[in-house]
Write a structure and sequence with these properties.
The complex is a heterodimer. By secondary structure, chain A is mostly beta strands. Chain A is built from no helices and eleven strands. Classes of the chains: A mainly beta, B mainly beta.
């Protein structure tokens, strides 16, 4: 069973389109994240939800809108895609307040904007 | 704000040899976690090792060990008996144990090449 799963794994689209990436975790975690990894492999946090509440909202264009229908799901919708949005987007989850503190990652979704 | 710095963009090691990857961080907090994650070409992020700041003993996981120097804010990863499968990007990460946002902050990564 995949602990953190993202769909789709690969996404190729044209500039100006709107696309969504979905994420689900079956670990019973209460906190989920979206990270963006650019071409230089730098990992930057975008958003985080704890029990459906937005707790981290970094400096991200308004074109990016996260949504968490429940604590096991976190989706990312991107409007009016731009070339600079091309990256790998990672979903991750953790259990807040637990001593292990580990962050579990999905396999990533590679977005290519043409 | 907390920061994590990995000053080695790339490192090479001969198979079966030992290599150390450096990581420094900046924080005013006393309670936090530190991690090393591995990202092979498959791009899956895999936890290698974890250290709680309140523990003085350095964490070890088989061939992987850390040198945690809290006063110096240093957290290096030592890989012993390097194997070809260790070739990957390695990321150092920090997470506060007390901050309400539980933000994980990553360094810029070190690409490790293992030479046969």
């Amino acid at each position: 069973d995949t602990a953190v799963s993202q769909t789709p794994k690969y996404l190729v689209t044209q500039m100006g389109n709107d696309k969504s990436i979905k994420c689900e975790q079956n670990l019973g975690h209460d906190t989920m994240y979206w990270y963006k990894q650019d071409s230089k492999k730098f990992l930057k946090i975008m958003f985080s939800y704890n029990n459906k509440e937005l707790i981290i909202n970094e400096t991200v264009p308004n074109r990016f809108s996260p949504k968490s229908p429940d604590k096991a799901h976190l989706n990312l919708h991107i409007n009016s895609l731009e070339l600079g949005d091309s990256a790998v987007y990672f979903c991750a989850s953790s259990l807040r307040g637990v001593s292990t503190g580990e962050l579990f990652f999905g396999e990533g979704s590679r977005l290519t904007v043409l | 704000a907390q920061t994590v710095t990995q000053s080695q963009p790339e490192m090479s090691v001969q198979e079966a040899e030992t290599v150390t990857l450096s990581c420094t961080y900046d924080t005013s907090e006393s309670d936090y976690y530190l991690f090393w994650y591995k990202q092979p070409p498959s791009r899956q992020m895999i936890l290698v090792i974890r250290q709680e700041a309140y523990k003085q003993q350095n964490a070890t996981e088989n061939r992987f060990s850390v040198n945690f120097q809290k006063a110096a804010k240093s957290f290096s990863l030592k890989i012993s008996d390097s194997q070809l499968g260790d070739a990957a990007m390695y990321f150092c990460a920090y997470r506060s144990a007390t901050s309400g946002t539980y933000k994980y902050i990553f360094g810029t990564g070190t690409r490790l090449k293992v030479l046969a």
